[in-house]
């Protein structure tokens, strides 16, 4: 007897008591929304990421005369995160770990540790782009940058502040310190 492995759907990534989100988007609508936001992705790419367990599978429901793959809107940023990480040269294994740690409901202490590790890696990955932004600002404003503060606010009122202290030893060699 063979056992068939079932991949998780996005519903499995939510708390069991959470009501189903609305609206649900067909795969074509999901891709259209991403492309409208400037994210280069195709239906085939989504299916590939689902098969590689980077993204959860869509749920399937009967809609418009046939079965359709459906996605929640909250999964849109995950696809954007994948593309950003790919642009940064991250491997699919690293991307998978990050996506799971950010978007999937943590179920164990190990998963919580993985989430924190992925968060730290993401903040460290911001180091280069933040320094480039500071250098651009310095050129534009003709003023030295000492620090850059980023405040991330959630819809539920939560907030996290990232403080990037930029110590300019020289234009060619700079050091950033990240305080969260």
How many distinct folded domains? 2
Beta-strand residue fraction = 15-25%
Major beta sheet, specifics? Answer: 3 strands, antiparallel
Poorly predicted ranges (pLDDT <50, ≥5 residues)?
Answer: 168-180
Strand order of the largest sheet: 1-3-2
Query: Helices and strands, in N-to-C order?
Result: EHHEEHHHHEEE
What's the CATH topology label of the largest domain?
Multidrug-efflux Transporter Regulator, Chain: A, Domain 2
CATH architecture title of the largest domain: Orthogonal Bundle
Q: Return the CATH class of the largest domain.
A: Mainly Alpha
Gross geometry? elongated
Quote the distance from N terminus to C terminus: 52 Å
What structural class do helix, strand and pairing data support?
alpha+beta
Determine the fraction of residues in helical runs and give it as a percent range: 40-55%
Number of strands: 6
Number of helices: 6
**Rg (CA only):** 20 Å
The averaged pLDDT comes out at: 78
